Amino acid sequence: MTILNNKTIAAALLIFVLIISITLGAEVASGSNSAFFLYEPDIPAFKESGPGKTGSVIITADAAVLMDAETGQVLYAKNPHQPRPIASTTKIMTALLAIECGDLKGEVTVSPRAAGVDGSSIYLRAGEKLSLEELLYGALLHSGNDACVAIAEHVAGREEIFIDWMNYKALKMGLKNTHFSNTNGLPHKEHYSSAYDLAAIAMYALKNPVFNRIVATKNHFINGPGGRRHLSNTNQMLWGYKGADGVKTGTTNAAGKCLVASASREGRRLIAVVLHSDNRYADSIRLLDYGFSNFENRTMAKKGEAVTWVSVRDGVKESVSAGCPRDIVVTVPVNGTAAIEKAILPDRGLRAPVKPGMAAGRLLVLIDGNPVAETELITMEQVNRLPVYGLLFNKIRNGIKQNLSKTPSSNMAVDAGPVYDQGFLKASCTTLRTNSASLMAISASSMPYSSVGIKSSAP
Q: Are 134 and 151 a contacting pair, CB within 8 Å?
């Protein structure tokens, strides 16, 4: 009875831990297709004078981050988590929410409140009608504060409600140093973000094809009361830097000159964030050049490729292959000095029947001992359950094996080794005389289990 109680308590504790893990995991999820996850190592992941460099990247910005858009790894950081005014880079989140929650072709009627907003403007007039998509171009290309308010009122009914959505989105994305008080970035003491958080928002937003298309556009025309409005993108990187494809400028007296820039070359995309910079374009170019020259992306595991084996109980096979549900890519220095490891943490064991796609453990990738990527391992094949007679035979065979291995014969020399629990041995020997099924129950509840992570060098 004690053994059964212990097993019941252990099972209850395990279920409780799993529930808590799932609940916490949901808090950092975002997006309709997949969980948003950034494995943030000790910032910076590679120091400013890191591998492959001669000297440091010298920039004028008070805060900056360089991030790989595919892996989320930080390649350079300066005051990355310092909350700061962010000016019109706010509009990245405004546009993202509008795209996710609104109808791009929906007709928006501009309110007097939206038409009267201060600062950068596309000169909307009260009562004017445009599509939501046209207003998004106005907000992201020409940085229209009036367009942002019109967007918020249309999508959420009131700008205040839309701002609550923005803060909720930031919370769900796990952003620790971000709070919005308006949709356009006008100065407010409770309106701020950090270089790292802005890079994370941009990384997420760039996965949206509509957002991605708009921020890469140099010029666009939308309807206006007297004809057509010509919108020219305020991001000069699009004209002057090879591969530039986004994202957003921002300028106020409090925030200074800010820029979230992205560029793509040879299958890689980088995001550079500079806040309160004396020369935002020169700073961004230095960061992007550094990232493209000194780092590369390496595939550590491919989708559908078996990486380990996990034991299976009560199955026609004793183990099942496990692999990754997606490609695992990490960013590494090109000079090859970083120590790259894979840590495979298989589940203790599965019970048949096993179907393809079942959770089977975790895979971690570490660079110089720091985790930079993590994914679930899933089973790659099916394992059927043994018939009843096979299960009975296995129980008897395993019971005999376990007891023989723990009861040395009198004519054998016994090396000094692990000290077995005497209470366990006594109980086992007594139970062996009764039946092997009881022995199995004692063995399962009493023997300690050690899960060992298997590490191997990267290919």
A: no
DSSP for residue 243:
T
How many angstroms from the chain centroid is the CA of residue 308?
Answer: 23
Kindly report, residue by residue over 43-85, the tens digit of the pLDDT.
Answer: 333 333 333 333 479 999 999 999 999 999 999 999 999 999 9
Q: What is the DSSP letter of 88?
A: G
Q: Which of 117-121, 215-219, 403-407 has the lowest mean pLDDT?
A: 403-407
Average pLDDT over residues 357-385: 92
Closest by CA position to 370, among listed 41, 74, 38: 41
The pLDDT, as a whole number, for residue 77 is: 96
Question: The dihedral of CA 38, 44, 49, 51: what is its sign?
Answer: negative
Q: What distance in Å separates the CA atoms of residue 18 and residue 182, rounded to the nearest whole number?
A: 38
Q: Which residue has the tokens 């919005």?
A: 180
Specify which residues 232 forms β-bridges with.
219
| C-beta of residue 428 within 8 angstroms of C-beta of residue 439 | yes
Annotated active-site residue 319? The verdict is: no
Quote the domain boundaries for residue 320. 302-407+451-459
Q: Are residues 80 and 159 in the same domain?
A: yes
Q: Is 321 noted as a catalytic residue in this protein? A: no
Confidence (pLDDT) at 208 = 98
Annotated catalytic residue: which of 88, 193, 277, 428? 88
Q: Are residues 24 and 130 in the same domain?
A: no
In the chain, the amino acid numbered 317 is K
pLDDT of residue 254: 96
Write down the catalytic residue from 111, 120, 143, 321: 143
Q: Are residues 106 and 245 in the same domain?
A: yes
Residue 91 exposed, middle or buried by CB count within 10 Å (0-12, 13-18, 19+) = buried
Whether residue 455 is found in the same domain as residue 325: yes
For residue 91, indicate whether it is catalytic: yes
**Residues 195, 281: Cα–Cα separation, whole Å:** 16
CA distance 455 to 121: 56
| Residues near 124 by beta carbon (within 8 Å), at least 6 away in sequence | 110, 114, 115, 130, 138, 144, 146, 147, 150
Selecting among 78, 91, 248, 257, the annotated active-site residue is 91
Residue 444 in domain: no
Q: What's residue 408's pLDDT?
A: 53
What pLDDT score was predicted for residue 415? 36
